[in-house]
Amino acid sequence: MQFVRHWLTRQAVYAFVKISFWVIISGLFMAGCDTNNIEEDASLGNYFTQQQVTGSFALLDNGRGSFTMYHLKRYKDSAYQPAATFNIVNALVGLQVGTIANERMTIPWDGQIRKYANGDTAAAWNKTLSFDTAFSTNAIPYFQEIARRTGKEKLQYWLDSLHYGNHQIGNSVDSFWMNNTLTISADEQLGLIKRLYFGQLPFDKTWQILVKKLLIKQSNANYQLAYINGEGILPNQNSIGWVLGWVEENKHPYFFVLNIEGAANKPLQNTGPAMAQGILTQLGFLKGKK
């Protein structure tokens, strides 16, 4: 009986530790917002109205732990396909397991002419690409091949380890982040980009530093702006767009995520970044005065 009691105690401790681990990981992954540290800014809705889209925006002042927010409910409670923003995880996994050797690794073009969602020819994709160029241009074919080479088993392991969205892959290892199988909330997206910035993701620091560098779009004496964007098609055929990243001024990081949804066939690949920069400018960023 004493052995049984000890065995049951050990099992109970094991179960508690396992549950606690996932609670901690989930908590780390989320951006950490609650109603006490949020300022909702209705004026940001003008950007959505002007572009005829719905959506949400959140900015985290990391130093103060406070949020500037538009459409809190959508930000916290709604999940959508990550589209090309999943390239962050796809890249980190590929680098970690050796599918991607380094930033110069090329994948030959297969000769197939591809187009963007709005029908324009994707000239930046239709050629042999290196990893760094493919990342900066959100080249879908490159990252589809990376996913195929990495394989479902390894990708699933890392989705589970990261607790990324609903961590579902389904049957299509090269398109699950674009076909609405994998979904993630804006809050989880913000948590991911924050952890990447601080090197807190469970990947080698070398690879996190590399991906951080590839996200930088503007860097000068006044500020650094880094982000990734993506767009896709929802099950209702509406267009979905993301922009997530950070703006750093005086060595102080602010993390942001923009989620937008438009009518079917509405191109969002340029809309999202333009909206994000407009909102950041209204909030006083990109001027070196923060």
Oligomer: single chain
Overall 3D shape: globular
Largest sheet: 7 strands, mixed
Helical amount: 25-40%
Domain unit count: 1
Rounded to the nearest angstrom, the distance between the terminal CA atoms is 66 Å
Mean pLDDT metric: 89
* Extended strand count: 11
Low-confidence stretches: 1-29
**Helix-strand sequence:** HEHEEHEHEEHHHEHHEEEEH
Q: Might you state the CATH topology name? A: Beta-lactamase
Largest sheet: spatial strand order: 1-3-2-11-10-9-8
Strand content: 15-25%
Under the CATH scheme, which architecture would be assigned?
A: 3-Layer(aba) Sandwich
Please outline the helices and strands.
Blueprint: H1 2-29, E1 38-40, H2 45-50, E2 54-61, E3 66-70, H3 72-77, E4 79-80, H4 87-97, E5 106-107, E6 129-130, H5 131-136, H6 140-150, H7 152-162, E7 184-185, H8 186-197, H9 205-215, E8 216-219, E9 224-233, E10 239-249, E11 252-262, H10 271-282
Helix pairs in contact: 4-6, 4-7
Question: How would you portray this structure in words?
Answer:
With 290 residues, the protein is α+β, with helices and mostly antiparallel strands. It has one domain: Beta-lactamase. Helix content is 39%, strand content 21%. It has 10 helices and 11 strands. The strands form 3 sheets. Strands 1-3-2-11-10-9-8 form a 7-stranded mixed beta sheet, with helices on both faces. Helix 4 packs across helix 6 and helix 4 crosses helix 7. It starts with a helix and ends in an 8-residue tail after the last helix.
